[in-house]
């Protein structure tokens, strides 16, 4: 019998189809055949009815393939206070707050695991834990820090001793790991631009960039155009482009300058202020890369999920949210659930794969203007920290390919060099054989640190672009014009639907900390309207 419900694909939502590799299949949703009545039409039919009536149709075994029918019969008759869509750290933070406030909560997660963009991925041979996604925590990231402490996740300093490598088109330069870059030549020309950024950040309407007096001017430009208006020195332009792509994993010609200025301004805590926003964003000690989690950052969401386990339904991709008066019906592959309020806790770049009934045109337009960065993470394992023996920190920053930013990592007695595969380079390698990506990353490491890089004993590679429920990382950026036109739809609730996910945060947007803040804020909105 043909499957009744088509699953939305990447191409249906305007993105090139994702590789159907084993990874995306393992994380849910990859096994549904595509045939039968288009899902959209089917849901429209469902939408015409509401609540239990819709669920009865969904439960009709004669309409569905056996497996589908079995799952859909599981209509949950409870009217929850809140349903949280997504068990990334933002959704988990929302659920935790709502449960603490005495609300009844269900969390629906597409994958078979919690954590979303925070994920422990084992190395290929030894199965060592590596942070495939989020890894670092820094000063003023107080909300994620509080969770790490609450769940007993130890934070260790990022290895920071010795010299770091600055790579500019084949030229290798060493510099002290702190304070930053070799301050000579073209890099100096970037300093007045950095000073201007600092000045802008100091009075910035963080989280509401559309309120800045020059919002229209800056949102009309890409980051690269904004920089090019300020310096004609090639190295300065390169460094400022690279700083942005190191943080966002998107090249500077693909997102709004206003977005970037808000992102930099958000890199501090509302209570703390900050002498240097740029240093806080890009730095190790004193900056966002100051600490790593012993055992992987994923321990935080995994332990949160463990504490919430009775509330979470895994393998439950949400397909539609039907607002019927004062409540919503949430249609997922694991059944249909009803709630007074819904938190959609994911990036705007993927939240509109869900069908909203009635439609939310403003929010849809906002989401259409957001794109996930392209990113992968590569880690090579060594028996000895040979770079330390050469006086090197293991940190590199530059325009070599395919990895442009590296750090030393450590796992279970083994020494690791980690490199981000960013932006266009990751896009180029999304579908490449794994060994090719490994070889290219190792070549880059050898250029940065020496030929000892070739003696790796193990590795891990994780390609976020190929993830069915992420579509890339670390964060989604907005194209020019989007924030000034539709920015309000980022957080304004739409009926009973509230928005979380790191992209909706004021402070530390793009980071774990911002994700936690956003989840807690969405929960507070719901508690405030449902006392
Ligand atoms: C390579 C990489 C490196 C990073 N480095 C750092 C770092 O060092 N420090 C830092 O602070 N941050 C870092 N980040 C960013 C950080 O991971 C994110 O900011 C944060 O994890 C986002 O959390 P979230 O809950 O908002 O979104 P997500 O983690 O994306 O959570 C969304 C959840 O929703 C689920 N979902 C999606 N669609 C549906 C659906 N239709 N139905 C049900 N569920 C659905 C997803 O499976 C996912 O679990 C990095 C990210 C990446 C990818
Ligand atoms: Mg989440």
Automatic annotation (TrEMBL):
The keyword 4Fe-4S does not apply. PANTHER family: AMINE OXIDASE (PTHR43563). The lineage of its organism: Bacteria, Bacillati, Actinomycetota, Actinomycetes, Mycobacteriales. It comes from the Bacteria. Keywords: Oxidoreductase. Coiled coil: none annotated. FAD binds at residues 90, 109-110, 318, 503. Substrate binds at residue 420. This is Amine oxidase (Flavin-containing). InterPro entries: Amino_oxidase, FAD/NAD-bd_sf, Flavin_amine_oxidase, Flavin_MAO, TAT_signal. GO terms for molecular function: oxidoreductase activity.
């Amino acid at each position: 019998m043909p499957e009744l419900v088509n699953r939305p694909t990447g191409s249906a939502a305007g993105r090139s189809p994702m590789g159907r590799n084993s990874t995306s299949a393992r994380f849910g949703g990859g096994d549904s055949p595509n045939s039968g009545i288009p899902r959209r039409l089917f849901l429209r039919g469902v939408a015409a009815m509401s609540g239990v009536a819709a669920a009865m149709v969904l439960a009709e075994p004669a309409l569905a393939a056996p497996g589908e029918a079995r799952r859909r019969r599981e209509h949950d008759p409870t009217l929850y206070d809140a349903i949280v869509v997504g068990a990334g750290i933002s959704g988990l933070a929302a659920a935790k707050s709502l449960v603490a406030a005495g609300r009844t909560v269900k969390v629906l997660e597409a994958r078979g695991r919690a954590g979303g963009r925070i994920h422990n991925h084992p190395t290929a041979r030894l199965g060592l834990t590596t942070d495939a996604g989020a890894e670092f925590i820094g000063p003023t990231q107080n909300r994620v820090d509080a969770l790490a402490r609450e769940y007993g996740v130890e934070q260790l300093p990022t290895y920071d001793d010795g010299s770091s490598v600055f790579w500019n088109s084949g030229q290798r330069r060493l510099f002290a790991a702190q304070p930053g870059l070799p301050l000579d030549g073209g890099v100096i020309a970037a300093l007045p631009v950095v000073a201007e950024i600092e000045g802008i950040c100091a009075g910035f309407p963080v989280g509401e960039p559309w309120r800045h007096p020059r919002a229209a001017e800056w949102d009309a430009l890409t980051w690269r155009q904004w920089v090019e208006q300020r310096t004609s020195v090639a190295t300065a332009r390169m460094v400022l482009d690279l700083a942005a792509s190191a943080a966002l994993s998107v090249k500077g010609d693909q997102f709004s300058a206003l977005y970037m200025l808000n992102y930099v301004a958000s890199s501090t805590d509302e209570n703390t202020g900050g002498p240097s926003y740029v240093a806080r964003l890009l730095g190790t000690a004193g900056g966002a890369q100051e600490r790593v989690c012993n055992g992987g950052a994923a321990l935080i969401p995994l332990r949160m999920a463990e504490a919430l386990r009775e509330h979470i339904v895994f393998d439950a991709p949400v397909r539609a949210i039907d607002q019927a008066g004062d409540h919503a019906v949430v249609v997922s592959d694991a059944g249909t659930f009803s709630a007074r309020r819904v938190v959609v806790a994911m990036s705007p770049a993927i939240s509109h794969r869900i069908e909203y009934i009635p439609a939310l045109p403003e929010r849809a337009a906002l989401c259409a203007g957001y794109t996930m960065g392209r990113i992968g993470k590569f880690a090579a394992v060594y028996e000895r920290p040979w770079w330390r023996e050469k006086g090197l920190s293991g940190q590199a920053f530059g325009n070599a390919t395919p990895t442009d930013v590296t750090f030393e990592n450590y796992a279970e007695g083994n020494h690791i060099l980690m490199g981000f595969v960013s932006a266009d380079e990751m896009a180029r390698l999304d579908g490449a054989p794994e060994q090719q990506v490994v070889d290219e990353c190792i070549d880059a490491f050898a250029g940065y640190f020496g030929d000892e890089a070739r003696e790796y004993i193990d590795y891990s590679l994780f390609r976020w672009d190929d993830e069915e429920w992420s579509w890339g990382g670390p964060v989604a950026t907005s194209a020019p014009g989007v924030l000034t036109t539709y920015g309000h739809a980022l957080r304004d609730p739409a009926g009973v639907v509230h928005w979380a996910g790191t992209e909706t945060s004021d402070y530390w947007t793009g980071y774990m900390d911002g994700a936690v803040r956003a989840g807690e804020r969405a929960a507070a909105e719901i508690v405030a309207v449902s006392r």
